[in-house]
Amino acid sequence: MPQCAQCGREIDSPPQSTGDLTCDQCRQKKFAEGAEKEALHGKQEDFVITNLLLAINIGLWVWMVFFRHIPVGSPTTEQIIYWGANYGPLTLGAEPWRLVTNLFLHIGFLHLLANMWALFVLGRLAESLFGRWTYLSTYLLAGIGGSVARLLWNPMVPSAGASGAIFGIAGALIATFWVGKLPLPKENRRYILVTLVAFAGFDLLYGVWKQGVDNAAHIGGFAIGLLLGMVLGHHLGPARPARVFRERVLLGAVMFVFLFAVVVWSRNGYITDVERARMLIGKGVVDEGLRELQVAAKRRPNEPPILLLTGDAYLRKGDFAKAEAAYKRLTELKPNEPIGWNDLAETYAAEKKFPESAAAWIKLAEVSKANAPLAWFNAGQIYMQMDKDTDAVNAYQKAATLVPSSPEFLAALGFAQLKAGQNQQAVATLQKAVKMQPASPDLHLILGNAYLAIGDQNRAQEQFFQASKLGQAIEQRVRQMMQERQAQQQGAAPQNGNAGPTKK
User: Fold this and answer.
1) How many domains would you assign to the chain?
2) Is residue 93 domain-shared with residue 212, that is, in the same domain?
3) Among 166, 157, 140, 141, which Cα is nearest to 91's?
4) Measuring CA to CA, which of 101, 130, 154, 405 is 20 to 30 A from 11?
5) Could you tell me which residues are beta bridge partners of residue 86?
């Protein structure tokens, strides 16, 4: 059996030409050395696919910013969706083309700059090493696969950017050099490694910081690129057997991404029904919206968005019992989610189930620090309707403790203390409220009543006088505004004999 003239190992496959005594491994290494030199020193116009991708990405951004006046730094969610972002309710419905269009759309200049720099550096090497069509196919497959991964992870937040595809190219290069054991000078390895790390670090952090960009697409694209690189790493170069093998691998990858998309659609496709229901309910077509929700519920009966929207729809119809059932199920499935407890508390209040409503508001305060002040305040309101003055005082006290600068909370607390017979405490609380909001006649009036309750007639009269004075000032200002508006309306009406311009 012939031996390789360079490394001495036996040659299993027949030589590519007469007198060629080089093994596949050495041929690959020689090809990789040439590809690496071409990537670093070749003319930019020779990299057709990289230039095409750069042109499409940059051209779309320029068109959006300079011809459609999209903000340079931070376009709105609606703008990103309009221009083709990956958005579950649309992508999983009638617009699957968003799996591709979002790869060329960027959320701001910095996002574009980081991705295009990485594409410029990595794209040249990938195009030299893999060839134009394998490189383009890997780019698109990784990008689409990353977009599908995003639909699996978080379909309700729109995403855009080339980073999933570029992560795929990075993964393919890493795997190719590792599996194929291809040579690369130390200084060049460092250059490529710095590019990879800087790009990956920026995009991963950007995915955490910027809403609308998700690391699921980055990880999904990288995984697909890594798998492709591991398979393609031994089959580089222009030889026909290598090209045929790459074509078969890419065809298999297309089938894999397609099946992955089918699985994701079967799992999350229900959100298209939910989105249609949301639009119908928003337009007031509640019964039709409920029918769409029933279709979605057959696929995912315990999905929180479906339960939440179902409860909202029944509230609009005034069917509190069914709304209550939906919200109760939501709180059972997601006991630490505040929105379920908030809506359940409001539904109980609408049904006059005051004890249950107060308990739900308290539960909301326990599961959400952000909602706790208002939740305790609402619990106090419910207790006041139940004439449970002491419980109301306790609830208002917790709300005021969390937000001591709120005159509304203090006023409610002071009124509850007065009603509960805690007159001295009511005076102290209401004094703070009046100090924060001295122009409120109602606060002066309540404070005057508190002074009467402790027997301080003089201070009570002062507060009543101040309330009357402020009330008269408000009434006078209202009358003045009405007179000014009436005068403006009379001035706008044309007078007889002066309907048009006059000539001198």
Assistant:
1) 3
2) yes
3) 157
4) 130
5) 159
Domain-embedded: residue 389: no
CA 334 from chain centre, in angstroms, equals 20
Q: Which residue has the tokens 């009467």?
A: 452
Same domain, 191 and 286: no
60: domain range? Answer: 24-268
As to burial, measured by CB atoms within 10 angstroms (0-12 exposed, 13-18 middle, 19+ buried), residue 85 is buried
Cβ-based neighbours of 386, under 8 Å, separated by 6 or more? 354, 355, 358
174, 281: one domain: no
pLDDT at 504: 42
Task: Write down the residue that tokens 């007031």 correspond to.
Answer: 284
Full-model pTM: 0.72
Residue indicated by tokens 């508190």: 450
**pLDDT tens sequence across 180-195:** 666 566 666 566 667 6
Residues 250 and 276 reside in one and the same domain:
no
Could you give the 3-state DSSP secondary structure of residue 159? strand
Q: Is 141 contained in some domain?
A: yes
Q: Burial-class residue 485 by CB neighbours within 10 Å (0-12, 13-18, 19+).
A: exposed
Pairwise CA distance, residues 53 & 38, whole Å: 19
The type of residue at 43 is K
pLDDT digits (tens, 9 = 90+) for 191-231: 666 766 676 676 666 656 655 456 788 889 999 999 999 99
262 and 274 part of one domain: no
Half-sphere exposure of 409 (CA within 13 A, CB side): 21
Whether 215 and 274 map to the same domain: the answer is: no
pLDDT at position 405 over 80: yes
Cα separations (Å) of 63 from 71, 106, 115, 135, 291? 12, 12, 18, 26, 41
Closest CA to 268 of 302, 291, 299: 299
CATH of the domain at 238: 1.20.1540.10
Same domain, 156 and 277: no
Residue 342's nearest CA partner among 303, 309, 316, 375 is: 375
Q: What is the pLDDT of residue 388?
A: 96
> What whole-number distance in Å separates Cα of residue 38 and Cα of residue 40?
6
Model confidence at 476, in pLDDT bands (50, 70, 90)? confident
Check: CB of residue 200 under 8 Å from CB of residue 208.
Answer: no
The residues that are catalytic are: 163, 218
| Mean pLDDT for the stretch of residues 398-419 | 95
Q: How far apart are the C-alpha atoms of 147 and 217, rounded to whole Å?
A: 5
Per the CB < 8 A criterion, the answer to whether 36 and 124 are in contact is: no
Q: What is the pLDDT of residues 282-323, one digit of tens each?
A: 999 999 999 999 999 998 889 999 999 999 999 999 999 999
Asked if 127 and 121 count as a contact pair (C-beta separation under 8 A), the reply is: no
On whether both 99 and 112 belong to a single domain, the answer is yes
Residue 251 structure tokens: 């065809």
Please check whether residue 383 lies inside any domain of the structure: no
Domain annotation covers residue 489: no
